[in-house]
Design goal:
By secondary structure, this protein is an alpha/beta fold. It has an eight-stranded mixed β-sheet with strand order 3-6-2-1-9-13-15-12, sandwiched between helices. It has a seven-stranded mixed β-sheet with strand order 16-17-18-19-20-22-21. A hairpin with a 2-residue loop joins strand 4 and strand 5.
Length: 597
């Protein structure tokens, strides 16, 4: 990467690069703890260079970079996580009759006693954590690549908690026991060779509840003590029962128990056991490294992003990795809603997984096949018509579901390894009329999201008129925590044009994947769409990444300056916008009165 690109990234992030790559005696840095005799200067510089390039290759937005840096600083909690816990604390103090199922958000609910204690104690620092489940290290080089990944995760200020799952190759025999212990220590050695610090934990983590032998429990003290010393705990799936007989735990059972222990250690008021009162956890990612580089369905359809609350049944019906899907669903339901899941191959390049850790966006191929001839011709026509064409960043994927195997032609580039991003997500409601919506809740959502006062009478009257004309699509996520409003505008000489009228997310729902969930719903509902945004809107960078094209309206003295966006469907047979439709859509959009006062 050229030096100019590095400077641009640092400037956009609004931070110094040395904050992202800790050094010296920073408590998150582990490479600095290695003795000079354990590595040559050249080897250390090479590792440092690889880490910097891996981090820079994630191309995070300024918001993502600041959010990540704040979360690893130890002095600031992610706003969405903090607001979520405060909201749950308020709900816990209310009478049960005042609470409705729609008010409950997936994740741990603070009980009344904990809420009272939270008001009396001071907040403890948070330690950003990634829970990593590894399902097999048999492939050549997998152990070294995984060790490198874990060492790099440490270096960027994240504390990984690793569970080496039993993928069926080991049983409860003496040979199976030795096989698991050997893999745990081999992985720890691989982390150490890459300049990290690891602590194998073979026994003592799992135990049965003495009052309920079917209830598997995890002792978080061993995990917290390892993290406090700057080590990555690598846990084996072994447990000694009451008769001191060693058992090999199934992946789903062991993973759920670890996730439960981590979720119980995320309080902002109580330190994690074993940390000496120094910190609690902030679980950001649940990473599963296995044999597949993501979730696939019937016809080898690759799922880049899955909203489990809405599409679990649909994906599970034809998923080629049902056990993985069920494991991720179980664990994400236990963890706080700000945690996201990543399913990647154990053979993935470490930089690919770092993308999913730092950025909140699903990652697809880093190299795209060139557009087909029809789309290329349309792009030339758009430029001739005076509308500049815009192509998103090559490493940013759309969140729709695409076919993985593409016919290999001269114009197609082989897709590299990718991964699936999962969120526990939210239930989705769809409305075609305002009468079926909770209009006061919708108004409150719009005003909270845009931080402006809605001209409610004029705006909702316009929607009611369009209901009987072109039509209206209202997509609501969760308990009115996010919404998309699409109107079908009349365009001369063509069928109605889908127009994205509002895209709103509550501030308290930021960080939960709400925006990507709503965007995926929008793409399913409207294969092609247009919208406008104020020229100074801070969300425009987000729109640029997801649009197929844009044009800035000519400057008019005293008038609002707009940027007009559109996206096109890449699925054969679905509607795409012609140049004339885009031009007509821009003309119609300019006539729509502002919605806020």
């Amino acid at each position: 990467m050229q030096a100019h690109g590095v400077r641009v990234f640092v400037k956009r992030a609004g931070v110094q690069l040395h904050r992202l790559i800790p050094s010296g005696q920073n408590r998150f840095s582990t490479a600095s703890s290695a003795s000079p005799e354990s590595e040559t200067g050249a080897h250390h510089k090479q590792r440092e260079r690889e880490l910097i390039l891996s981090v820079l290759s994630t191309v995070p937005s300024p918001r993502e970079a600041r959010k990540f840096l704040n979360s690893v600083s130890g002095n600031e909690t992610m706003r969405s996580q903090r607001e979520f816990e405060e909201r749950q604390a308020r709900l816990a103090t209310e009478e049960p009759t005042m609470r409705t199922p729609g008010q409950l958000v997936p994740g741990e609910i603070l009980h009344s006693e904990r809420a009272a204690e939270a008001r009396e104690t001071e907040a403890v620092p948070r330690r950003l954590t990634a829970s990593v489940f590894i399902d097999g290290l048999e492939s050549p080089g997998a152990c070294e690549r995984t060790g490198k990944l874990l060492a790099q995760i440490q270096r960027i200020g994240v504390s990984p908690v690793v569970l080496l799952a039993n993928n069926g190759s080991a049983d409860a025999t003496c040979g199976g026991y030795r096989s698991i212990i050997r893999q745990v220590h081999q992985l720890a050695d691989a982390v150490e060779r890459e300049g990290g610090k690891a602590r194998p934990i073979n026994e003592g983590v799992f135990f049965n509840n003495p009052y309920d032998r079917t209830d598997l429990t995890v002792d978080p003290e061993l995990i917290g003590a390892a993290i406090a010393q700057g080590h990555t705990p690598i846990i084996s799936p072994l447990m000694a029962d009451a008769e001191l007989q060693v058992k090999v735990l199934k992946p789903r059972v062991a993973a759920a128990a670890v996730a439960r222990a981590l979720a119980q250690s995320t309080s902002t008021r109580h330190a994690m056991a074993g940390s000496g009162g120094a910190f609690s956890l902030l679980v950001a990612r649940l990473i599963l490294l296995g044999g597949a580089d993501g979730l696939t369905g019937e016809g080898n359809v690759f799922h880049r992003f899955v909203n489990l609350e809405e599409y679990y049944a649909e994906v599970a019906a034809a998923c080629a990795q049902p056990d993985v899907l069920e494991l991720m669903r179980t664990c994400l339901a236990i963890l706080p809603p700000t945690a996201a899941g990543i399913v990647a191959s154990v053979d993935s390049d470490p930089s690919l997984v770092l993308k999913g850790l730092i950025s909140e966006r699903p990652v697809a191929t880093q190299q795209r096949a060139r557009r087909n001839q029809g789309v290329a011709q349309q792009g030339q026509a758009v430029r001739r018509a005076g509308i500049p064409s815009y192509r998103p960043l090559p490493n940013y994927p759309f969140v729709d579901i695409g076919v993985r195997d593409v016919a290999k032609t001269a114009d197609v580039v082989e897709a590299p390894t990718q991964f699936t991003l999962l969120r526990h997500g939210f239930q989705i409601q769809r409305h075609k009329k305002l009468d079926t919506c909770n209009v006061p809740r919708l108004r409150s959502l719009l005003e909270s999201s845009f931080k402006r006062t809605l001209d409610a009478g004029q705006y909702f009257e316009r929607l009611r008129q369009l209901q009987s004309a072109g039509g209206v699509e209202i997509i609501v996520a969760g308990d009115y925590q996010g919404a998309v409003i699409v109107t079908h505008e009349a365009v001369a000489g063509a069928e109605s044009l889908p127009y994205l009228d509002k895209f709103a997310v509550l501030p308290s729902a930021q960080g939960t994947g709400m925006a990507d969930i709503l965007w995926a719903q929008l793409r399913r509902t409207c294969p092609s769409c247009m919208w406008r945004s104020r020229n100074d809107n801070g969300v425009n960078k987000w729109y640029f990444d997801r649009s197929s094209g844009h044009v800035r309206a000519p400057a008019q003295p005293g008038a609002t300056q707009w940027v007009f966006f559109w996206y096109q469907s890449s699925v054969p047979g679905q509607r795409t916008l012609t140049v004339d439709e885009i031009q007509s859509g821009i003309a119609v959009s300019q006539k729509i009165a502002p919605s806020f006062v």
